[in-house]
Amino acid sequence: MPTFQAAFSPLRDGRRAPSGNGLTRSSIDFLLRMTEPLIPAILAFRDNGTPFSPRHDDIYHSAVGGLAQAQYVFLQGNGLPGRWQGRRVFTVLETGFGMGINFLMTWAAWRADPARCERLHFVSTEKHPFTRDDLLSAYAATVADASIAGLGQTLAEAWPMLVPGSHRLEFEGGRVTLTLVFGDAAETLPTLWLRADAFYLDGFAPAKNPELWTPAIFKTLARLAGDDATFSTYTSAGDVKRALTQSGFEYRKVEGFGWKRAMLMGRFAPRWRVRRHEPPAPLEVQERHAVVIGTGLAGCAVIERLAARGWRVTSLERHAALARDASGNPAGVFHPMLWRDDGVASRITRAGFLYALRRWTMLEEAGHRLVRGSEGLLQLASTEEESNMMAAALASFGYPSEYVTLLERAEAERIAKLPLAQGGWLFPHGGWIDPATLCAAQCATAGERLERRFGVEAARVERVGDEWNVFDAEGHLLARASAVIFANAHEAARVAGLRYAPTRSVRGQLTLLPAGSAPSLASLPLPVIGDGYAVPLPEGVTLTGATYDIDDPERAVQTAGHVENLQRLAQMLPTLAGTLDAQDAASLPGRVAFRCVTSDRLPMIGALADEAAAIHDSERLRGAWPLDLPRTDGLYGAFAYGSRGLVWAALGAELIASQIEGEPWPIQRDLAEDLDPARFLLRALRQGTAR
């Protein structure tokens, strides 16, 4: 294995990924706590029909009524809907999602308000989320208002799998976004990055659920509060009042709801500096127009996410059509990675996998055709030892079966319909997809907001006034816009002028087995992956591969590559041993594409740093963290996706669009920092080698 991979630990796709080198401090602390399984809430009712939590011995809402409490305490307490009127984006942060009544009432108020904000973000944490069935049962028993019950049904239909991390759900064509963060709020709240306009403080009572009312929680909220952000809560406990005051909030004690004598409401009005960094704000632009360089998986996902927010986009592509490089492969597999300590790679691919599934489903519901498999994906262990290790890991994580299921070899063989070398684990929602159909659908959704330019190649960018000019190698102006997103893989760092972006090229050769060339594969119903993969495509074709040839520029299909692919395939599927020899391999069709990878095997996603300014101020930034770095306004990266573009592209595009718009980030900040294009510059600054 080449030396630049030496700091990596084996993954289950035969490649390597980070085992700790380069992680942020928050990442290390967080992943050490993430080994505990997510435990669902228990649905129970008091004798009067009020839902309550046996775990906390407290009710989810007042016995007088959950809808009325949400309206009085949280909407009225925060001056809603009046405060969001005329705004482009308005963000609510809630501590404790519970049954979601506050969200449903806020959503209903937004729908009913003709002067509503353009986009409503609702972010909420929950340590013990309900299952979908229990959520529906709770609504059926407690929600009499038909309109609210209808929204509850819509929410339940979109309810995410119960796995830790952030889950972004979109409603009303994306104008209402719910970001659910499953996990302990004391651990997840500090990892969020957003600018809150209103806080719903709605954990169980301080005496029953003290960890949601600590001074540390309120200090975290102060770091996320926008100018004149408001808050409200049903409690008026003395410890809560003191913690609010110490964190820069002013409060008023007002008449409580139902049988509560008093409640608190107020605003963020610090008399002293209470935070090191200001929360995120939108990019200041005169026109909402962006240039996206590259129209593979990364670029097309960005186009779709920006156009969905009303941006006009100009795409620049050196080829004559979209999806021509690695995104032009006949198919790609998608699945999350399993990691025995739920580390960075596991958490990022889980978030990306689940978000991509939701985006693709929305594309299909809008009438766009995606060519993809629907039978799931089977991943095989390499050895018996690995199988035992993963069994122990999955038992500790407690993932639901709809996310992943461990399989003994006999059961795996029954599903695959052929003999296998090992057992493994099934991803019911994993599978394969034709990337070109996905790219076409994403661009089609942009409609007239997208200007497509093919056969042009960006060579450099230059700031002129408050916009960026993009030039080709001859100095001709190709486009001008307020924002530029570099999604052009190997060329991104060069065109963006980045020095601290270590990327390399990895050649990958695919092998296509025509129908009848390997009879034992004819009945394979789903992709099987391990050290290689077998993907059943239409018309009886099987796709296998791919080679992993670092810094190999050869573009022609090589017989040796086919032989390598077939050997690895036979190790997974023993019946294929000896089926195809080298002579047969020479006649097989195939395709070569080049992956762009970083030295830490994570993608480059997000705002680009101003490297010159950072180096000029290198002494002060020697101990810097990502938020300390100067950024180049309007420049963003979406590249180095390696072989995981299908899993990372949609989430990466949503992260970039959220950064541009000043919206809540779709993943925790510590994970975004692990993807930050400036992370290599940051390491050089810390090591004193930035020059």
From TrEMBL:
Q: What is its main location?
A: cytoplasm
Question: Which residue ranges does the record assign to the MnmC-like methyltransferase domain?
Answer: 150-266
Instruction: Enumerate the subcellular locations listed in this protein's record, separating them with semicolons.
Output: Cytoplasm
List the residue ranges of the region (FAD-dependent cmnm(5)s(2)U34 oxidoreductase): 293-691
Q: What is its EC number?
A: 2.1.1.61, 1.5.-.-
Q: Which UniProt keywords apply?
A: Cytoplasm, FAD, Flavoprotein, Methyltransferase, Multifunctional enzyme, Oxidoreductase, S-adenosyl-L-methionine, Transferase, tRNA processing
Q: Which GO terms describe its cellular component?
A: cytoplasm
Can you cite a GO biological process for this protein? Answer: methylation
One Pfam annotation, family name? DAO
Q: Does this UniProt record's set of keywords contain DNA damage? A: no
What is this enzyme's catalytic activity, as reactions?
5-aminomethyl-2-thiouridine(34) in tRNA + S-adenosyl-L-methionine = 5-methylaminomethyl-2-thiouridine(34) in tRNA + S-adenosyl-L-homocysteine + H(+)
How far does the signal peptide extend, from start to end residue?
A: none
Its biological purpose is as follows: Catalyzes the last two steps in the biosynthesis of 5-methylaminomethyl-2-thiouridine (mnm(5)s(2)U) at the wobble position (U34) in tRNA. Catalyzes the FAD-dependent demodification of cmnm(5)s(2)U34 to nm(5)s(2)U34, followed by the transfer of a methyl group from S-adenosyl-L-methionine to nm(5)s(2)U34, to form mnm(5)s(2)U34.
Q: Which family does it belong to?
A: In the C-terminal section; belongs to the DAO family.
Report the NCBIfam families cross-referenced here. Answer: MnmC_Cterm (TIGR03197), PRK01747.1-2 (NF002481), PRK01747.1-4 (NF002483), tRNA_MNMC2 (NF033855)
Instruction: Please name the HAMAP family in this protein's record.
Output: MnmC
Q: What is this protein called?
A: tRNA 5-methylaminomethyl-2-thiouridine biosynthesis bifunctional protein MnmC
